[in-house]
């Protein structure tokens, strides 16, 4: 494959201790030699491989120093991309990385696209597609659980499982071929039983994988949570209590709309992605600030609503409005301020919100938060989510393919049960094999590959 040499700044923008410019491709070392001058004037290629070498980047036109750097080269194939790779570690900050990148490009490298280094690792066969996806997830991980899950996938847990299932399908195909070659009645009967057994097993295994996808999504994206309640019921106090007890909030993340802020709270490994806490915290009234329409919209794709009532007050019109908003949503109801005289009975709410779980709390006294956390765990981690060796489906692409593969096996099983000739099921088994192969990217179209790598950042 004759592909060009790519380059990008691998460190995030802004000031930092060091900045790294990375190159990958046949001309990496040649380009580095043109602009790097080591101690005793040696070019990079004259220095030891896989070692950080001290030197300067110089402008080849006037040999003037651009920055003082450490540089390393790694010969293919044992590199991230399986191509020759050069890394130049310069002083952190916008100017140095920009100047060096400019020189590198002038010497013939092309600016890398998003994810292009990882794409090359995939195209050159170092990692498969599920592993490439794991790299994106690692970078974007907001919780330890998410990171661990992705690391597992990067190390090949999904790949291994897919290969294992594909091998079973191959053995089925071999059986089918055999019975076509020796169309003996007995052989066919034995074959049919064997095939059913294997197909059932594959079916169950695929089903198990699909079942992990909800956990995978929640670990990855968090439980999208909206806290609702009229002013003064204790929403901010709840937020603060959650933040305080679960220090591991990662960061404020600006959402798609300018005024939406998401905050992650880590509860027993479940990331709650609480939406619009800024609204709650700053204006003390989410519903009033954003309006009922907006609240409805936020609730539409929320996984959970936490509805807070002040039980020292009787229900008001506003409470009723909020109740009607969350009627058909997964919701937990909090009766807050239980330290005060109660004017609210559980029936008042449970009449209108059937089968919603009610927890009594006092944010003032710190009571009830533990019960809330218990309940969250129960709701979202029904299958306990030990991040172990087993693969977890981490995105909808994988999930959709598994669903297709499962349909293929189902068709095969139906055909077997109807005692159709075994060669009729061959096409289903092949279809299943192929759909599983799309997960690892054994056979997949250019457009899909491009789409996947678009999610990366530059320089990865
Ligand atoms: P928000 O407007 O819904 O965000 O409510 P806040 O969390 O700002 O609380 C409003 C007021 O109620 C504050 O003065 C809190 O200290 C108080 N508050 C919150 N939770 C409790 C509680 O459980 N008991 C009592 N007595 N007061 C509370
Ligand atoms: Zn508030």
Could you walk me through the main structural features you see in this protein, from its secondary elements to its overall organization?
It is found in: Cytoplasm. It comes from Andreesenia angusta. With 460 residues, the chain is α/β, with parallel strands linked by helices. The chain has three domains: 6-112, 2-Layer Sandwich (Gyrase A, domain 2), CATH 3.30.1360; 132-212 and 391-453, tRNA modification GTPase MnmE domain 2 (Four Helix Bundle (Hemerythrin (Met), subunit A)), CATH 1.20.120.430; 230-268 and 285-380, P-loop containing nucleotide triphosphate hydrolases (Rossmann fold). It is built from 17 helices and 14 strands. The longest helix is centred in the middle third of the chain and has 27 residues, at 185-211. The radius of gyration is 29 Å and the shape is flat. Guanosine-5'-diphosphate binds at residues 229, 231-237, 280, 284, 336-337, 339-340, 362-364. Guanosine-5'-diphosphate binds next to helix 9.
Question: What CATH architecture label of the largest domain applies?
Answer: Up-down Bundle
Query: Any idea what the shape is?
Result: flat
Work out the number of β strands.
Answer: 14
Number of distinct helices = 17
CATH topology type of the largest domain: Four Helix Bundle (Hemerythrin (Met), subunit A)
Radius of gyration, Cα only, in angstroms?
29 Å
Straight-line distance between termini: 21 Å
What is the CATH homologous superfamily assignment of the largest domain?
Answer: tRNA modification GTPase MnmE domain 2
Q: Approximately how much helix is present in the residues?
A: 40-55%
**Biggest sheet record:** 7 strands, mixed
GO molecular function: GTP binding; GTPase activity; identical protein binding; metal ion binding
Pfam family, one: TrmE_N
Subunit structure: Homodimer. Heterotetramer of two MnmE and two MnmG subunits.
Function: Exhibits a very high intrinsic GTPase hydrolysis rate. Involved in the addition of a carboxymethylaminomethyl (cmnm) group at the wobble position (U34) of certain tRNAs, forming tRNA-cmnm(5)s(2)U34.
């Amino acid at each position: 494959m004759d592909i060009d040499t790519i380059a990008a700044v691998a460190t995030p923008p802004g000031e930092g201790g060091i900045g790294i410019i990375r190159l990958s491709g046949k001309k990496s070392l040649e380009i580095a030699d043109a602009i790097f001058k080591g101690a005793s004037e040696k070019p990079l290629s004259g220095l030891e491989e896989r070692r950080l070498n001290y030197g300067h980047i110089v402008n080849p036109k006037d040999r003037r120093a651009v920055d003082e750097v450490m540089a390393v080269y790694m010969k293919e194939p044992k590199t991230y991309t399986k191509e020759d790779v050069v890394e130049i570690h310069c002083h952190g900050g916008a100017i140095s990385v920009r100047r060096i990148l400019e020189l590198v490009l002038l010497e013939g490298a092309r600016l890398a696209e998003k994810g292009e280094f990882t794409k090359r690792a995939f195209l050159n066969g170092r990692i498969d597609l599920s592993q490439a996806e794991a790299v994106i997830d690692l970078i974007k991980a907001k919780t330890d659980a998410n990171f661990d899950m992705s690391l597992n996938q990067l190390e090949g847990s999904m790949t291994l499982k897919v290969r294992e299932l594909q091998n079973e399908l191959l053995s089925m195909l071999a059986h089918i071929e055999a019975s076509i070659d020796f169309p003996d009645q007995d052989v066919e009967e034995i074959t049919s039983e064997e095939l059913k057994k294997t197909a059932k097993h594959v079916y169950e295994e695929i089903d198990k994988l699909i079942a992990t996808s909800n956990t995978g999504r929640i670990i990855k994206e968090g439980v999208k949570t909206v806290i609702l309640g009229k002013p003064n019921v204790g929403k901010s106090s709840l937020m603060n209590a959650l933040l305080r007890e679960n220090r591991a909030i990662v960061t404020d993340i600006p959402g798609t709309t300018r005024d939406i802020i998401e905050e992650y709270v880590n509860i027993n490994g479940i990331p709650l992605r609480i939406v619009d806490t800024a609204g709650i915290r700053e204006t003390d009234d989410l519903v009033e600030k954003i309006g009922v329409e907006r609240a409805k919209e936020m609730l539409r794709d929320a996984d959970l609503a936490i509805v807070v009532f002040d039980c020292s007050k009787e229900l008001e019109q506003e409470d009723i409005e909020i109740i009607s908003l969350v009627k058909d949503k997964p919701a937990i109801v909090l009766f807050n301020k239980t330290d005060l005289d109660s004017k609210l009975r559980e029936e008042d709410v449970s009449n209108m919100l059937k089968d919603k779980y009610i927890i009594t709390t006092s944010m003032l006294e710190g009571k009830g938060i533990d019960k809330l956390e218990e309940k969250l765990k129960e709701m979202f981690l029904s299958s306990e989510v030990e991040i172990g060796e087993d693969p977890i489906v981490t995105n909808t692409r994988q999930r959709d393919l598994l669903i297709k593969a499962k349909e293929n096996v189902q068709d095969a099983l139906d055909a077997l049960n109807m005692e159709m000739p075994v060669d009729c099921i061959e096409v289903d088994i092949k279809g299943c094999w192929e759909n599983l192969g799309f997960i690892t990217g054994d056979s997949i179209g250019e457009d899909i590959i491009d789409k996947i790598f678009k999610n990366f950042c530059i320089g990865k």
